[in-house]
Amino acid sequence: MKFCIKHEIKGRIRIHVMQKRMSCGQADTLLYYLEGLPQVTSAKVYERTADALIRYEGSRDLLVDELKRFHYDKIKLPKGYLETSGRELNGKFQERLVMKALLRYAGKIFLPCPLRYGYIAFHSLKYIGKGFDVLRRGKIEVPVLDATAIGVSVLRGDFETAGSVMFMLGIGELLEEWTHKKSVDDLARTMSLNVSKVWLVRDGQEVQVPASGICAGDEIRVHIGNVIPFDGVVTGGEAMVNQASLTGESVPVRRTVQNSVYAGTVLEEGELTIRVREVGGSSRFEKIVTMIEESEKLKSSLEGKAEHLADKLVPYTLAGTVLTYLLTRNVTKALSVLMVDFSCALKLAMPISVLSAIREASRHHITVKGGKYLEAVADADTIVFDKTGTLTMAKPTVARMVVFNGEEPDELLRLAACMEEHFPHSMAKAVVDAAKKKQLDHDEMHSKVEYMVAHGISTTVEGKRAVIGSYHFVFEDEKCVIPEGKQELFDSLPEEYSHLYLALENRLAAVICIEDPLREEAPEVIRQLKACGFSKVVMMTGDSERTARSIAGRVGVDEYYSEVLPEDKAGFVDKAKESGRKVIMIGDGINDSPALSTANVGIAISDGAEIAREIADITIGSDDLFQLVVLKKLSDLLMLRIKKNYRQIVGFNSGLLLLGVTGVIQPTTSALIHNSSTLLISLKNMEELL
User: Fold this and answer.
1) Parallel, antiparallel, or unpaired: how do β-strands 219-222 and 197-202 relate?
2) Is the per-residue pLDDT at 296 higher than 50?
3) Which CATH class is domain 366-393+518-621?
4) Is 639 helix (H, G, I), strand (E, B) or coil?
5) SS3 call for 541
6) How far apart are CA 307 and CA 470, in angstroms?
7) Cβ atoms < 10 Å from Cβ of 92
8) Whole-angstrom Cα distance, residue 246 to residue 85?
9) Closest among 557, 523, 521 to 540, alpha carbons compared
10) What is the pLDDT of residues 29-77, one digit of tens each?
11) Where are the beta strands (DSSP E) in 76-159?
């Protein structure tokens, strides 16, 4: 790529790409390339000027070399990346906004008054028609007020006032549409599917392959807790599928042979073999956009109250107009009341503030699936953490293998990895990664694998029954025993590790000691969350009392519970809610899903199981617990902004009404100030909170 450097300081460089015109697609391709470079911390590409602003760390010369190597044709973009980037959407709305302003002022300068007034009168019919439609439905809402203000101005021959009102309303509608569309698209993008590998069924065997290599007609197998990566038809198996991400239904549906399944839905129970019907990248995005736009999830209760209040205030504004005329017999003063209403600003500013907050959260790698969840976070007083992968590192590692049956440790690790690789849990991933690091290939050595949530896995290997899982599962449920003479070795297992037990033919074969280090930031995050207003911080884990007690003491939680099952977590959340508490649940595994869906707000850590991310109301996308503090502060600031909006709108418009009724300002001035203030409040609500 040919480019010139326009400006640079240490860690920041601005370049200009030497080409006549940069398309939106080219700008997105360059941005994708820049964001993929390891030394680049952030980048922006401006297609109108063909410039790019790059912030980087490390060698400046290395970055310049990478830029020289760039070529549009050599970059392979993910499916649907360009279609869902949002760049073209922004450009289209910016052009519409500029054109609207240019046409308005060009008309005032160049069009003769009769033509301009005729156009205003014709354009007013649209607003008057909307007002009559609302009246026909037996309602008195904002369109009635707009229609009355515009209609009375036209009838009085005050075309300038009518034109100003319609122009400001048009700008407001355009800004609201732009902000809403952009926020919904940003939200949908962060919720869009991002599956890198899938299990392809080939000659009756499962082979893990990149998702990008799957074609229509291929058969894939999806296990419990995983996202279905493509639209398709079930050819084998039976499962309960959670379709909440597409339909909003919280109750999973049964899927068997010949049933259709859809990308982005999640297996809660069972296993399915699916013939892929569609691999297009944008279909999932479009479905999510539709779901969001049709869902009430985007609305917080304060937002709903604002809309309800806005509609309730319309009859009072109309009554105030009539009363002013009856008392003063002055049409100008009555019109001044009509030109000022509280409802416009309330209806416009509140949704924009909520959607802008959701968009700002996404820039902090936080996916919020609706405004009401930000409100719930602001109201919450209790926060419940799962331990593994949440308060501890998302990437636990195998520290050592303790063998009890005399076999080679590597062979037992190979078997454990073969069993664990099908299921999404941080402990399972630790075992698979340990085998991979030792280059222990593990082709399918077993028959069908059964997975018991929060317990373990059982299967048959060469005619022998093999189980792997927790102490409770292996020794109490499966009745496995410790080999003779090995009790002392068992009693001396290192306490600082979590333990995964592997048994063959009901006899303990090995204990896999897994190091699950505490996140460095966890104690400080807990301290800051308490400072932000949480009166109760709880940790719940399926781990032993010994491990739970150690972690709880180090992070500083108020309460902890060990050896809990999924239903115990959900039960605790239920009881806390019944006692009047507002509860946030944070987890990352399949076993956290019931509690995530039960809590007032469920928050999933992104490295966890897909089912947790799908069920959760909010997802933390970065591997940093401080994002929870950011989320809490963002939610609190949003609520403060909404309350401030109420005060500003009511106070300012009350002042305008008083000035209009006393004759200090004319209706034209009143309309201009009112609509300008509404626009300014809306623009102010688009600003970042943090």
Assistant:
1) antiparallel
2) no
3) alpha beta
4) helix
5) coil
6) 52
7) 13
8) 21
9) 557
10) 999 899 889 899 989 999 989 999 999 998 999 999 999 999 998 888 8
11) none
pLDDT for res 118: 93
pTM: 0.71
Provide the token pair at 206. Answer: 């499962």
Which CATH homologous superfamily contains domain 397-515? Calcium-transporting ATPase, cytoplasmic domain N (3.40.1110.10)
- How far is CA 640 from its chain centroid? 22
> Are the C-beta atoms of residues 609 and 424 closer than 8 Å to each other?
yes
Over residues 487-509, the pLDDT tens digits come to 999 999 887 788 899 999 999 99
pLDDT at residue 294 is higher than 60 = no
**Does 27 score more than 90 pLDDT?**
yes
**Which tokens is 388 given?**
């593994």
Nearest-angstrom CA–CA distance, 237 and 12:
54
Under 8 Å between Cβ of 605 and 389: yes
Ordered by start, the domain boundaries in the chain are: 3-77, 366-393+518-621, 397-515
| DSSP SS3 for 306 | helix
Strand order across the beta sheet in which 507-515 lies: 397-403, 507-515, 498-504, 464-469, 456-461, 450-452
pLDDT digits (tens, 9 = 90+) for 612-643: 777 788 988 777 899 999 999 999 999 999 88
* pLDDT, mean of residues 300-322: 75
- Say if CB 212 and CB 197 are below 8 A apart: no
Say what the pLDDT of residue 303 is: 66
Can you point out the beta strands (E) in 443-571?
450-452, 456-461, 464-469, 498-504, 507-515, 536-540, 559-561
Q: What percent of the chain has pLDDT over 90?
A: 33
Residue 84 makes CB contacts below 8 A (sequence gap 6+) with 185, 188, 189, 192, 281, 282, 285
Q: Do domains 366-393+518-621 and 397-515 have the same CATH topology?
A: no
Q: Tokens for 231?
A: 């639209």
**Mean per-residue pLDDT, 594-614:** 80
Classified as helix, coil or strand, 477 is helix
pLDDT of 530 reads 96
| Reported CATH class of domain 3-77 | alpha beta
| CB-facing half-sphere around the CA of 53: CA atoms within 13 A | 4
pLDDT digits (tens, 9 = 90+) for 146-181: 888 889 889 988 898 888 888 878 887 787 677 667
- The three-state secondary structure class of 239 is strand
Give the closest residue to 512 by CA, choosing from 609, 391, 396, 591: 396
Q: How many Cβ atoms sit within 10 Å of the Cβ of residue 236?
A: 14
Local structure of 369: helix, strand or coil = coil
